[in-house]
């Protein structure tokens, strides 16, 4: 009886803690949405931002956020896939592997501000890319690569060893087994991790303040020259993202309706991050069912 009472008490305490955490999180989300949703409109989502007049929008900042996200994923996904496959399938236990894992752990614990300063010194100053999308994407790659690498490695390790043995028994090489057997089986977990990382990239601000810049030049949609600073596909132009815009609006305070712009921008940012998170789980479940039923 005494053990049962302790078990019920411990269970009640855990449920209470979980309830408090969920309540706090739900309250924060509702607070941001309630304050921001009334200020969201089509003109707000597509209009140009204003520095000194009321009524500005977030169109360019929203586009910059998605464009920067795409460039970052183009750089970081192949690198994380290669590193994850090596650590899971090829790396042997030893000092070299332990050193690599230690470096990954250290990188994953770095604050985003430190990564931003590193990106500023290396990509902006040393490589002379200046404040640009490519500088921001490379900094975010450094910031996000450890998490994505661990996700790929964990997803591959969860594939049962019999899958690998079956591939080798058919006479295909180890590399072909990884490509055609192991990675497809681990694909739901890998895709889920990439989508979750996308939400983290989309909402990042500190690392981009020092690398991607704090201005959003007007874009010329008829100009598709990748080296032009007015081209929407240029990776060498400054690109103030939505998260940086929220910080800038609150820090400068030069816009008459700064509170409304900040609240609306925060609500839009939160909505997209929620879409990334819930979408990742749905997509992972869908792929898992698709692969298991095939």
UniProtKB/TrEMBL annotation:
GO cellular component terms, semicolon-separated: plasma membrane
Biological process according to GO: phosphate ion transmembrane transport
What Gene Ontology molecular-function terms does this entry list? phosphate transmembrane transporter activity
Matching SUPFAM superfamilies, A to Z?
MetI-like
Could you tell me the keywords of this UniProt record? Cell membrane, Membrane, Transmembrane, Transmembrane helix, Transport
Q: Please state which protein family the record places this protein in.
A: Belongs to the binding-protein-dependent transport system permease family. CysTW subfamily.
- The record places domain ABC transmembrane type-1 at 62-280
Lineage summary: Bacteria, Bacillati, Bacillota, Bacilli, Lactobacillales
Q: What is the name of the protein in this document?
A: Phosphate transport system permease protein PstA
Specify the protein's topology with respect to the membrane: Multi-pass membrane protein
Please state where this protein is localized.
Cell membrane
**So which domain of life are we looking at?**
Bacteria
Q: Which PROSITE patterns would you find in this protein's record? A: ABC_TM1 (PS50928)
Q: Name the InterPro entries for this protein.
A: MetI-like, MetI-like_sf, Phosphate_PstA
Query: What does UniProt give as the signal peptide span?
Result: none
Transmembrane portions of the chain: 12-34, 66-87, 99-123, 258-280
Which coarse location class applies to the principal site listed for this UniProt protein?
membrane
């Amino acid at each position: 009886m005494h053990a049962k009472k302790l078990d019920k008490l411990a269970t009640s305490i855990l449920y209470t803690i979980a309830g408090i955490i969920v309540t706090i999180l739900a309250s924060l989300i509702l607070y941001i949405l309630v304050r921001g949703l009334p200020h969201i409109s089509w003109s707000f989502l597509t209009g140009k931002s204003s520095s000194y007049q009321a009524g500005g929008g977030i169109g360019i900042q929203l586009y910059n956020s998605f464009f920067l996200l795409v460039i970052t994923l183009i750089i970081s996904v192949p690198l994380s896939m290669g590193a994850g496959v090596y650590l899971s399938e090829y790396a042997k236990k030893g000092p070299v592997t332990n050193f690599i894992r230690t470096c990954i752990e250290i990188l994953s614990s770095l604050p985003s501000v430190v990564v931003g300063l590193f990106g500023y010194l290396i990509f902006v100053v040393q490589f002379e890319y200046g404040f640009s999308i490519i500088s921001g994407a490379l900094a975010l790659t450094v910031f996000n690569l450890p998490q994505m690498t661990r996700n790929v490695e964990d997803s591959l390790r969860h594939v049962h060893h019999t899958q690998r043995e079956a591939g080798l028994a058919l006479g295909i090489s180890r590399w072909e087994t990884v490509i055609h057997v192991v990675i497809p089986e681990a694909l739901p977990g890998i895709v889920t991790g990439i989508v979750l990382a996308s939400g983290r990239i989309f909402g990042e601000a500190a690392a981009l303040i020092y690398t991607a810049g704090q201005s959003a030049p007007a874009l010329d949609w008829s100009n598709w020259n990748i080296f032009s600073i007015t081209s929407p596909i240029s990776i060498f132009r400054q690109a103030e993202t939505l998260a940086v815009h929220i910080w800038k609006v609150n820090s400068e305070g030069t816009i008459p309706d700064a509170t409304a712009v900040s609240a609306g921008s925060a609500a839009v940012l939160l909505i997209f991050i929620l879409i990334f998170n819930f979408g990742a789980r749905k997509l992972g479940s869908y792929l898992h069912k698709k692969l298991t039923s095939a």
